[in-house]
Prior knowledge:
By secondary structure, the protein is α/β, with parallel strands linked by helices.
Amino acid sequence: MKPESKMNGAESLVRTLVHNDVNVCFANPGTSEMHFVGALDKVPGIRCVLGLFEGVLTGAADGYYRMNGKPASTLLHLGPGLANSLANIHNAKKANSGMINIIGQHTLQHLKVESPLTSDIEAIAQPMSHWVKTSMKSIEVSKDGAEAIEYAKKVPGKIASLILPADTAWGEGGDIITAKELDPRRKVDESIILKVAKVLTNGKHSTLLLGGGALTEEATLLAGKISAKTGCGIITEAANARLSRGAGRLDMFRIPGAGVVDRALSMLEKVGQLILVASKPPVAFFGYPDKPSLLYKEGAPISKLVEVEEDIVSALTDLAIELGAINEVPNHVAVSKRPDRPSGNISKEKLAMAIGAMLPENAIVVDESVTTGRDFFPATAGSPPHDWLNNRGGSIGYGMPVSIGAAIACPEKKVILLEGDGSGMYTVQSLWTMARENLDITILIFANRTYEILRGELTNVGVQNPGPRAIDMLTLDRPHIDWVNVAKGMGVESLQVSDCDNLLKALDVGIKKDGPFLIEIIF
Ligand SMILES: Cc1ncc(C[n+]2csc(CCOP(=O)(O)OP(=O)(O)O)c2C)c(N)n1
Ligand SMILES: [Mg+2]
């Protein structure tokens, strides 16, 4: 397809993005990306969202993918801009989210003179990307862009990083290119279905471990039917990219995650034969003295039904048919039930009750609550249907950016962000983007004024009797972070609460408001 007037490489890339249904760009540009910025102006059909730190952009692309199932693009300024964004690319990669990073580069001529911003961008991109390419000719930029899109859209999603030297952006562009069609998900072999059916009916206790695409409503209800027929348990991985839950959907426990290996071990002791459904054999977050890295005994009975990139729904359907379970009423379905509204002082248990009591229908819960939210599941299981998103990469600072992307992907839904006060500070610039784009996000800051999890970790790794200097590295009280004014300073309305009645009132304000609202919770 040739447009009427001549366009430059940058415009050919933006048009190729839009042509292939990539219509969001989370951007923070510099001089080398000016032609791309100019092109964004000319081409309709792409929403440009400015972020004030690059980790905000890549985290937003992650959240967008999780809720929309398609990649967004990011625009990053040379090696340092990319470097700033890497932690959230890492998290996105672990969540199997696709994204197309467009990274500016000096002109090929200018690279020879070793100017201040020169760096080896490919080397910076490589470890966090599945696909990296520098466009060498302006006429090929659109073709390279289409290849990046094709890669990012693979199943599961992939990180594609396209490096765009400034002269390839301003030189003459090529045709707008259609990215190649995706291969369909591969079907699981019948022999595997039969093998897993045999395990499930051998008289021993079994548990399905669900991950990835097995966490949709459709897939979990199939798992529920299999459980109804065979009596097997159902659990999920410790962190899920997107879990469908709430009333009418399956009520499942996650494997306990960071900082609580013993809890995870005691849960997995009871699972019997483990059956992997788009999940991996569970491992601990960290190694500790005298504790295992694997959360199951070596040689324990583990079978695999389906890999994350295979056709998960058809594998579960075929298994349910093989077991004669397809017409069963699913097991473990949560009944519609909200907890009582709590009163008095705020505790972790009462926070769970307040969230369970107030959660709006179809909410997107982005969970970066670290220690505060470890046990939020029971009190929220019977709330109206919602999605629950966790950090799969363990690099904190994912919650605020992922909320931005989720809110942009689903403007009709309310995002509820559960945020630790330590984690929130990593990408706090997100608040400004939330205000600027008027994103419908209610932010709960759990202001315990510590890195609470690390206090436990000191003990877990065997540091005896930590002194004041060690404790000082885990404490956020010198000075207190004034979240209400941090939010106000970036244009987000906010309130501080320290008892349940005011918490419930503040939640009501946040949920009714069509835009961002931050609640600092002191407890
Ligand atoms: C990028 C990155 N830096 C540091 C850490 C180590 N870390 C894990 S949790 C945590 C503190 C979390 O504090 P907060 O969000 O306040 O949650 P709390 O522990 O208080 O519940 C830190 C520093 C990390 N996981 N990722
Ligand atoms: Mg904290």
